[in-house]
Amino acid sequence: ETGVITLDRGFKNTGSCSSSITFLDGEKGILRYRGYSIESLAEGADFLEVAYLLIFGELPSKEQLHKFHTDIKGESHVDEDVKKILDGFPKSAHPMGVLSSLTSALIAFNPSSVNVNSEEDMYKAIVKIMGKFPVLVSWALRKNQGTPLNYGDNSLGYVENILKMMFKKPNEEYVQNQVVIDALDKLLILHADHEQNCSTSTVRLVGSSHAGLFASLSAGICALWGPLHGGANQAVIEMLEAIKADGGDTKKYMAKAKDKEDPFRLMGFGHRVYKNFDPRAKIIKVAAEEVLNDLGIDDPILDIAKGLAEEALSDPYFVDRKLYPNVDFYSGIIYRALGIPTEMFTVMFALGRLPGWIAQWKEMRELKEPIGRPRQIYTGENDRPFKTIENR
Ligand code: SDX
């Protein structure tokens, strides 16, 4: 309403934009990208197809997908000088901080990607970041592990190339199995977009000032880092490992989560929109069981996770508050099985969310959305006379 300011903390009841990209129904647990159900895409498409769908609005033909991938491959080199920035980080740097910094650093090496004033500029900036981001993700991992950086292999598929850059050991033949490739591909699809969540709203808000795409993405990575958002996938595994170290005492952690004096929350539970179940968590739970089975891994953390979920789903405190496992609850179990270190989990979330962020940023610019500038309810001091320092 003009004139009257309505306070809506956390924007729980505020629509920030119109969008035709992703549809959520929190009551029915429905998630669709451009009208296609997440279940059908997770089963039938690969991540690059879904990225194309989110960004351009339609599932690509064979020719369109081939051209998109070819254009992306043509942009998959990262300037050698970016390594000097990477070298400046201590090994202990959190990979999300490395990823956000290197994404922002790319601006200096790709100045043309800042002002996207035509469809052609927009397309060029998109394939640039789709080509370079996986390299930055792999470099963040290699930095974290203290292993030499790998270069991409353009003969491979998009996701397999990412795995090769992340895991190829020096002087060793690179071997990856299809179970791992398919599992990561599915996980990335399930993370690809989620309408106006915290990090996507950040990407839109930063982009609404006409800051460039890479700058907006760098801001989105920082928003995703928080443990209440994408950082939850790392916090879930840390919580499950703590429970395991405590002899599997889930009751103690359930009590902590319900204790208002204790800031501890059951990580991987609850969602602002989903009030019955998170359709992604359902798919990831099944995928986790399949991947561990296919890879012959017996991870006690999965059993603890399932036990905790069962307990919470029958606990009045959680049921009354409609708290269910969300996308972050089981995803870390798969990342562990793929050999990805815990502090890299949120980087993997960012890798999956990249096409969603791009699609939302592109839509915001194409619809010429105004600069985001909310108002406030002022609760500070009224007008008062200045006091010189002698009188304070
Ligand atoms: C993601 O928005 C998106 O779409 C995000 C995401 C995406 O794809 O982009 O889906 C990805 O971020 C998933 C969420 C990952 N975060 C976590 O798992 C962290 C733990 N979850 C919570 O912090 C919380 O549930 C949120 C942040 C997810 C949602 O917070 P809300 O909607 O602001 O709800 P709230 O904090 O107001 O909680 C409502 C009540 C409160 O109790 P009361 O004050 O009413 O008594 O539920 C309680 C909360 O204390 N509560 C929890 C809880 N989550 C909410 N209590 C214990 N454990 C929890 N996890």
From TrEMBL:
<comment type="pathway">
    <text>Carbohydrate metabolism; tricarboxylic acid cycle; isocitrate from oxaloacetate: step 1/2.</text>
</comment>
<dbReference type="InterPro" id="IPR010953">
    <property type="entry name" value="Citrate_synthase_typ-I"/>
</dbReference>
<dbReference type="InterPro" id="IPR002020">
    <property type="entry name" value="Citrate_synthase"/>
</dbReference>
<keyword id="KW-0012">Acyltransferase</keyword>
<feature type="active site">
    <location>
        <position position="328"/>
    </location>
</feature>
<dbReference type="InterPro" id="IPR036969">
    <property type="entry name" value="Citrate_synthase_sf"/>
</dbReference>
<dbReference type="GO" id="GO:0005737">
    <property type="term" value="C:cytoplasm"/>
</dbReference>
<dbReference type="GO" id="GO:0006099">
    <property type="term" value="P:tricarboxylic acid cycle"/>
</dbReference>
<dbReference type="Pfam" id="PF00285">
    <property type="entry name" value="Citrate_synt"/>
</dbReference>
<dbReference type="InterPro" id="IPR019810">
    <property type="entry name" value="Citrate_synthase_AS"/>
</dbReference>
<dbReference type="InterPro" id="IPR024176">
    <property type="entry name" value="Citrate_synthase_bac-typ"/>
</dbReference>
<protein>
    <recommendedName>
        <fullName>Citrate synthase</fullName>
    </recommendedName>
</protein>
<dbReference type="InterPro" id="IPR016142">
    <property type="entry name" value="Citrate_synth-like_lrg_a-sub"/>
</dbReference>
<feature type="active site">
    <location>
        <position position="271"/>
    </location>
</feature>
<keyword id="KW-0808">Transferase</keyword>
<keyword id="KW-0816">Tricarboxylic acid cycle</keyword>
<dbReference type="InterPro" id="IPR016143">
    <property type="entry name" value="Citrate_synth-like_sm_a-sub"/>
</dbReference>
<dbReference type="GO" id="GO:0036440">
    <property type="term" value="F:citrate synthase activity"/>
</dbReference>
<comment type="similarity">
    <text>Belongs to the citrate synthase family.</text>
</comment>
